[in-house]
Prior knowledge:
44% of the residues lie in helices and 22% in strands. It is an alpha/beta fold. It has a domain at 1-141: Rossmann fold, CATH 3.40.50. A 10-stranded mixed β-sheet has the order 3-2-1-4-5-10-9-6-7-8, with helices on both faces.
Amino acid sequence: MKKILVPSDFSEQSLNAFKFAIELAVRAKSQIHLLHVIELPVLYDTTLMPALSFEKEYLEDAAGLAKKTFTRMISKANKDLKISWSVGYGNPTSVILQELKAGKFDLIAMGTKGATGLKEYFVGSNTEKIVRLSGVPVISVPGQVGISSIKNLILATGFSGNQDSYITAVKKLQSFLNATLHLVYVNTPAMFRKDNESMALLNSFIKKYDLSGVKPVIVNDITEEEGVINYAMNTGKCMVAMATHGRKGLAHILTGSVAEDVVNHIKFPVYTIRLDKKK
Length: 279
């Protein structure tokens, strides 16, 4: 966790993510890099206002505003932190992923305000897209929350896939947060198991990965997403850790991702890792 990328559109949500990243960086002795992406406007040339001239002026003004805003943000941060910034141009998701690869970051911290309805299924929030596509862990920050307030780490699992690297990362996170680990299995009507079967799987999982400070939990709910969110709400003072398979295109629309759905709707920070991550 030595280099943290914090995309910022200067919204309240992204400022919350920056504050979260500052506390994280202080504790982990990390560097922070702020990134603002300026989306290029679609313009048509006219005799009154040539498009190229207008676009140049727009980009210069936007970059100047970003510089002033970043300077003000950094001036209010911990003076001992190393914080850099840059401005990118184009599609936010593409630019963030390019910066991620070029800068060799260990973690992304992003604010999120979620997406609902058709927007959720066909567009999705920028944070949801990064969760799906990032080759490094992502912490999605939905509101004002401090690292020191997190006492519980909720690990939601379905027992499937190779989770060795994922669980290793979660154990390090648990130690970093000094949190109680809640190993949660959500029992749904579609994937029903008897409680004794589920508990046996949870205990086997704990033994396999040598988990400590852990509380095995069975949650019964309509969907996995609702089970995780409702348990987090009842637990409080928590962060949720989940894996995502990073599905794209039609496969994502048809099958979805529980992790991305939780990111879109939960009120607590979510730590996600792609099981098939590629840097």
